[in-house]
Amino acid sequence: MALPRSGPVRSEAARLAILRAAASLLTERGYDHLTMEGIARQAGVGKQTIYRWWPSKGDVIAEAILEGHLLAARREPPDTGDARADLATWLVELFSLRSSPEGEGLLRSFIAAAAGNAETGRRLRAEILAAPLMLRLSRAMGVATGPRLDAAADALLGAVILRALSREEFGADDMLALVDVIVGTHPRAEEDTASPAASVG
Amino acid sequence: MALPRSGPVRSEAARLAILRAAASLLTERGYDHLTMEGIARQAGVGKQTIYRWWPSKGDVIAEAILEGHLLAARREPPDTGDARADLATWLVELFSLRSSPEGEGLLRSFIAAAAGNAETGRRLRAEILAAPLMLRLSRAMGVATGPRLDAAADALLGAVILRALSREEFGADDMLALVDVIVGTHPRAEEDTASPAASVG
């Protein structure tokens, strides 16, 4: 009895094999040497199967990143109780993807894929600016929801994207300056003056 | 006597012819139908002349934008005396490039070119975040220079880039919210309470 040649289970297995093959080849060879043919061969699928789901290798890589097969773009920010520091830590980790061995050029590949494909573009923003990040930002700003919160989220991630595009460094101090500018310095100033030394007298 | 076949003058004429041809073809046919061959034909140069200076059509377009042959990405912000409003106006104009007839996809093409080419990436940031914009921002923040000013500039332009990538709307109110978040609401609050109605009593 012949098994059905397609269906949800088979499709999901193929999809995962493609994402894993893409991640593995990227790590071995780098983005410039990655081809749809190579991914198809390693995944054991036809090239047309890949093109059925993704228009370019950049889109395959974008999905591999978003699903956690590569890098940790969706890693949640820490939760230390200091939302400003948590945000800065998250930004530093996001930006440091640039300098990881498999990450050279990868954040930029993701950006290029987002530029070329609407769905990848929507996912770039929606999945990186997910609930855990928005919660830290909301806490740090003292704003529950609304256009100010959305603008702040766009500003944080957008600044990282721009620095990645312009190939400029963005150190931990720069990240804190960015968070300070966006979140405002007032909640922090209150915390600072609430330290024991400041409250004496 | 034969004229020299190359030299600074001839090169500059060819360079300008290429940029103008690229701008003209893009407006006529759209980015997807733009090819290096087509640009070369219209400019009356060999394709290799184009590749000598630019690795891809995206890079030609990026340079055409930066030099003002297409769109007005480098347009200075207005100077009305209200630096916050000037910044919001500038952001709205920058983002509206998206919806201009020749601008469909163009901002994203520029971003993709910046992702693929380091020099284009550097120019994207350095030339759009030029002196007139930095001056308005400096005024609005009350900060002359330093990492906070740089972070604020990255946040403004980065937010526009991210919204363009994610294909989400970014209306005038959103731009004002963005400026408010980044510049801080305090100078504006002072201005508001200095109005005649508020100062009575």
UniProtKB/TrEMBL annotation, chains A, B:
Ranges of residues in domain HTH tetR-type: 12-72
Keywords of the record: DNA-binding, Transcription, Transcription regulation
InterPro entries (UniProt xref): Homeodomain-like_sf (IPR009057), HTH-type_TetR-like_transc_reg (IPR050109), HTH_TetR (IPR001647), Tet_transcr_reg_TetR-rel_C_sf (IPR036271), TetR_C (IPR011075)
DNA-binding stretch(es), residue numbering of this chain: 35-54
Protein name (database record): AcrR family transcriptional regulator
Annotated source species: Microbacterium trichothecenolyticum (Aureobacterium trichothecenolyticum)
Lineage: Bacteria, Bacillati, Actinomycetota, Actinomycetes, Micrococcales
